[in-house]
From TrEMBL:
Alphabetical UniProt keywords: Coiled coil, ER-Golgi transport, Membrane, Protein transport, Transport
Family: Belongs to the SNAP family.
This protein's name: Gamma-soluble NSF attachment protein
Biased composition (Low complexity): 254-270
Biased composition (Acidic residues): 271-283
Gene3D superfamilies found in the cross-reference section: Tetratricopeptide repeat domain
């Protein structure tokens, strides 16, 4: 004679059914059972995430991400932001092979949750993931802004060596945008970071900018193929390898070439002198 719905008990039974369906490899039914559990007990945030995992196993990734996003919103509303951020991070990893733009959005959302909790170390790692994916999509304007945010955070937590690496990444991105002024500004601003001035990162960027500005293809190539840039994260290493100087570049003449040219000039001049000498003798 109990006329009031018992949602807690219903949710418990749906959860049992979901596990049974999952064990029986009936993933569609397991997903539906998890959704029924979530509807019966809306405070059970994990039910939506579990439904998302079932959809992942069924290779229905966009739907899976939708449910995980819904779960993350409920985690935030119910005071567990860390769980929300981790769920968004998982969703980003799921969708990354299929939709880079969506993955960027999820990583940025997750970073925002951590940032609100003043957990900058976790936040900056996620922003770093977003920056690399933006570079991979050649969205260089967005990548430049994302890298600046990364660099500011690393500076705030006093991880200065990583700031140096982010400066290199910034320079490469700005040069691919064709914005030499912005690239130079990044290096100039980094002089205020303890230890940057005179470091190998600083020297390399000064040489890169000089070579780029002077259209010296050889110098740019030498810096970009150095271990310092070659062993960066793969997306940035590719930027270094593919960087071209404006106007096609030029190569400085080698010493041998220069002496060869002077030799040719001297040889060309010699007959004239000899001819003059004989001409004088005939007179």
């Amino acid at each position: 004679m109990k006329w009031k719905p018992d949602y807690d008990s219903a949710a418990s039974e749906y959860a049992k059914a979901a596990v049974a369906f999952k064990n029986a490899k009936q993933l569609e039914q397991a997903k539906e059972a998890y959704l029924q559990e979530a509807e019966a007990h809306t405070n059970n945030r994990s039910a939506f995430e579990q439904a998302g995992m079932m959809l992942k196993d069924m290779q229905r990734l966009p739907e899976a991400v939708q449910y995980i996003e819904k779960a993350s919103m409920m985690y935030v509303e119910n005071g567990t932001p860390d769980t929300a951020a981790m769920a968004l991070d998982r969703a980003g990893k799921l969708i990354e092979p299929l939709d880079l733009a969506k993955a960027v959005h999820l990583y940025q959302q997750a970073a925002g949750v951590f940032e609100n909790e003043e957990r900058l170390r976790q936040a900056v790692e996620l922003i770093g993931k977003a920056s690399r994916l933006l570079v991979r999509q050649q969205k260089f304007d967005e990548a430049a802004a994302s890298l600046q945010k990364e660099k500011n955070m690393y500076k705030e937590i006093e991880n200065y060596p990583t700031c140096f690496k982010k400066t290199i990444a910034q320079v490469l991105v700005h040069l691919h945008r064709g914005d030499y002024v912005a690239a130079e500004k990044c290096v100039r601003e980094s002089y205020s970071i303890p230890g940057f001035s005179g470091s190998e990162d600083c020297v390399a960027m000064e040489q890169l900018l000089q070579g780029y500005d002077e259209q010296d293809e050889e110098q740019v190539s030498r810096v970009c193929s150095s271990p310092l840039l070659k062993y960066m994260d793969n997306d940035y290493a590719k930027l270094a390898i593919s960087l071209k100087v404006p106007g096609g570049g030029k190569k400085k003449p080698t010493a041998a070439a220069a002496s060869g040219d002077s030799g040719v000039s001297a040889a060309a001049a010699a007959p004239e002198e000899e001819e003059d000498e004989y001409a004088g003798g005939l007179c």
